[in-house]
Amino acid sequence: MTSVNGSGQVEKVHRGVERAEMEKLIRAGGDDAKVGWDSVWKARITPWDIGASHPALQEVVEEGEINFPKGSDKKALVPGCGSGYDVVYLATQLGVHATGLDIAPTAIERAISLASTLPDAAIKERISFKGEDFFRLNLKGEFDLIYDYTFFVAISPTMRSEWGRQMANLIKPGGYLITLAFPIEPKRDVGPPFYVRPDHYDEPLGDAFKKVYDNVPKRFPPGREGKQHMMVWQKV
């Protein structure tokens, strides 16, 4: 029989093996990130995918502290959308047109499959998925809301300034950026996921955004207590 502490240690070892395999597959893709990430999705090494929209996203949207854009005339974007659960949630909960973006074709296939099961045709019409590169989008001021969960930690820290510039380019004045920092773990020099702390978002976003929400989520998936931090930014 495995003790509670033993179970935790086994889980920790499993996560380490899973992370090492993910890093190996991404490196095997070389300079082509699309190949590397698609290999990860094909191998189903996606520990960030909890099989549902994220509880912390639901919390910040539904508690009502921030008046997020609502209605079919508003647009939301989820870069690195994966299986698409959060895209579906935003389209359903806020009534917006929601677009999911991912460079991995396998992830996009799964997201499209998920959306196809929705019973509400009106919601389906407000959802789209694209296999495009976030950094190559040329859609200035197109979005009222962007949600980043694990996309920030999937890219090299050397690209974080470019990430901030693109967020400022894509979000219209007065629009919102939701950032869920995860995983908050001891420092490591390799990734993904790359080392992250809540204050790592400050410099890339600079003066283009003001932080309007900064909290530790009360709702979280099992095993993630203390490993995530929610922030909301408004484009100035």
Please outline the helices and strands:
Blueprint: H1 4-28, H2 33-42, H3 55-62, E1 75-79, H4 85-94, E2 97-101, H5 105-116, H6 121-125, E3 127-130, E4 143-149, H7 151-154, H8 160-170, E5 171-181, H9 202-205, E6 209-215, E7 229-235
Parallel strand pairs: 1-2, 1-4, 2-3, 4-5
Antiparallel strand pairs: 5-7, 6-7
Helix pairs in contact: 1-2
Commentary on this structure:
With 236 residues, the protein is an alpha/beta fold. It folds into two domains: 47 residues; 188 residues, Rossmann fold (3-Layer(aba) Sandwich). The chain is 38% helix and 19% strand. The protein is built from nine helices and seven strands. The protein has a seven-stranded mixed β-sheet. Helix 1 packs antiparallel against helix 2. The chain is globular and about 40 Å long. It starts with a helix and ends with a strand. The N terminus is likely disordered. InterPro entries: SAM-dependent_MTases_sf, TPMT. This is Methyltransferase domain-containing protein. One of its GO terms (molecular function) is S-adenosylmethionine-dependent methyltransferase activity. It holds the Pfam family TPMT. Keywords: Methyltransferase, Phosphoprotein, S-adenosyl-L-methionine, Transferase.
